[in-house]
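Dear support,

We are seeing what looks like truncated structure output for some complexes. This example has two components. We would appreciate it if you could run it in full and send us the complete C-alpha cell output so we can diff it against ours.
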Amino acid sequence: MSRTSHRTPPTGSRRALKKETTKSRIVAAALALFQVKGFDATTTKAIARKARVAEGTVFNYFPTKEDIALHFMEQEVEHAMATVRADVRLRKAPIEEKLFALVQTQLEFLAPHERFIGAAFVQALRPGSKLGLFSPSAQELQFHYLAFVQELVDEAIRRGELSAAGWWTPHVFWIYYLGILLYWLHDTSPGKQQTLAFLDRSLSIGVAVLRQR
Amino acid sequence: MRRMSVNTKSPNGGARPLTSAAAGLTGKVVGSMLQRLFPTTSATGRALRLAGLTAGVTGSYAGYTLQRLFLGVEGRDRKRRSTHAKAGRQIRDELQLLRGPVMKLGQALSLHTDLVPEEVLAELTKLQMEAPGMHPSLALAQFKASLGRSPEEVFTRFDAEPFAAASLGQVHRAVMRDGTCAAVKIQYPGIRAAIENDFRLVRNLSLPVQASGHLPKLVLDEMESQIVAETDYVREADHIEFFHAGLKPLDFVVVPEVYRDWSTDRILTMSVVPGQHLDAFLAKHPSQRLRDLVGSRLLELFNFQVLILETLHADPHWGNYLFNDDGTIGLIDFGCVKRFGSAFVGWLRKGVLYPGRFDSPQFKQIVQKQFGSPGERLTPGAWRVITDFSERFYRKVYPPDPKEAERPFDFSDPGFLRDFLRAAGKLTRAKVSIPEYVFLTRAEMGLYTTLHRLKARVHTSAIVRRLLTASRKEDGSSRRP
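Here is the complete output from our reference environment:
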C-alpha cells in the first residue's frame, strides 16, 4: 500500500473551498494594495507576495488586475442585492426606500476601498478596459444589477405604488447610480452625510416623477 | 408631498367667475411649476421652492379676494375658511419638506395665536409633532455613519420607526444592554448645510426690513447662530446635563439623562422622559386643581430659569413639554438654550415686580439698561411702548402689591394674551429688538399660550417674589454652565 493511499483524496467540495479561499486571499491582498499604493502602481507580483501565493497562481484566477476589480464589483452587487432581498422589513417598504437601501448597501461595501473606486472610474474610461461601458463582462454585471432594479420596479407596479414605468427606467437608474458614486467620492462631509441627504431626496423626487407618469 | 390641484370649480359645484379663476390659477400654476421643478437640496432649489410656495398661497388668496365680490355673506365666510385651511395645509406641507430654519419659523409663527388665522394656525401647530420622518433605512444609515456602529450592535432593541419628530431630527425608542429604555434622537443628514442656505436666502429676502431697522442684523445673526448651534448634539448634551443639575431644586421637573457613549454631534441617546403632550393631556379633561398646579409649576419653571439660572430653555413650543397626571413636567429638546448676561438679569429682577410709578427716574434707568443698546438712548416712541406694556400687561399679570397678589391670575381670559401679543408687536415696530429680548419674548409667548390653553389660575407674583428672594441668596453666576 502506498503512503498516499492512506490520505483521503480531496473531494470536489473541499477542492472548491480551497480554490475559493485562495481567490479571496488574492482579492483581499489586491484591494489592500489598490487602496494604499493605487490601482496603477500595484503589480501582480506584489499582489502574489501579499496573498502568499505564486505569481502564476494569481494569473490562474485573474488574467489581469481589471479582472480582480470586476470580481470585487460582482461581490458588491451580489452583496447589496442579497441584503435587500433578506431584509424582511424592507418587503413592505416603499420603492424609494428599497432603492435607497440598495445603493446605501453598495456604498457601505465600497467605503473601505474609496481610493480604488476612484481609480476604477478612471480605468473604466480607457478604451478596451474590461471595466468600461462596452466590455461584455462589465455589461453582464450591469444587466444583472438592472434586472434586480426592474424586479423592484415591477413589484412596486404590482402593489400599485407606481402606475407604470418605461423600459428605460433601470437604465436611467444606472446613470443615476454612477452620478451618486461620483458625488459620494467627492463628499467630504462627516460620515458622508451629504450623500445620504442627496440620495434620499433625489430618490424621493425621482419616484415622485415616476408616480406622475 | 401634497400637490396643488388646479381645480376651477367652486365648492358648490358651479363655475368660478372667470377673473378670479384666472388670478388664482396664475399664482397656483407658477407656484406649482416652481415647486415641481426645484428640489430642496440646493440653495437655489430651496429659494425657488419658497418662491413657489409664496406664489401658490398668493394665488389662493387672490382668487378668494376676487370671488368675494360674487359670493353671498355665508358663501364668503365658507370660502374664507376653506382658503385659510388650504393655505395652511400648503404652508405646512412645504415647511415640512424644507425643514431646517424655515420650519422653525413656522413653529414660531404657530405661537402667534393672534396674528395667524385660526385655520392656518391649526395646520402650523401640527408642525410641532408631525414633521415627516426619515425612512428607517435612512435613519439607520445616519446612525451608523455617525457612530460607526449600527443600532443592532449597540442596543438590545431598536425601533426603526420613530416615535417622535423634531424639526431637525427624529426620536426612536431603544433598549440598552442593561435593560434601560432610551430615546435616540437622530439628526437629518445635511441639515447644517440646509440651514446655512436658508439663512443666506432669508438675509437676501429681508434686506428691506433690515434696512428699515425693524429686523436688526444683530437679531438675524443671533437667530442663525442659535439655530446652527442646535445642530450640534454634543452641545445639546451639555445643556441637558446643565439643566439636570440646575433644576434639581424643582422636584416636579423631569430632565433626561444623557448616555454619552452612544451620542455624537448627530446622535443623542438619553433616558426616556414620561408624559404627554399638551393636547393629549387636555383631552383627558384634567381637573381645575391639576391645571392650576401644572400652570403654577410652568410659571415657576420659567422664572426659575431666568432669575436663578440666568439660562433659558428657549424653545417654548408645546411639543417640548410633557405633562403627567401627578403634576410633574417633563422637559425635552434642549437644542435652543439662551444664556443671559448677569447684568441683563440683574435689571430684569429690579423691574419685574417694580412697585413705583413708571415715570420715575428709577424705572427709567431700569428700562434704559434692560432694553437700550449700550451708548444709545431709547427713542420716545420706544419709551411709550415699554411703559404701556408694563402698565397694561405686566402690572396686571404680576401685581406688585402683595395684598392684590393674594388673588391668582386667571390665564383663561383671552384678553391678557391679546394684550401681550399686541404689546410685543408694538415693541418690534418701535425697533426694540435686542437679542435677549427676542428670546425672552418668544419663550414668554410660549409660556402664556400654554397657560391660556390650560386655563390655569396662578399666584404669579407670589411665585416670582419667592424666586427673587432666593436669587438674592444665591449667586446666579455660580450656576451657569
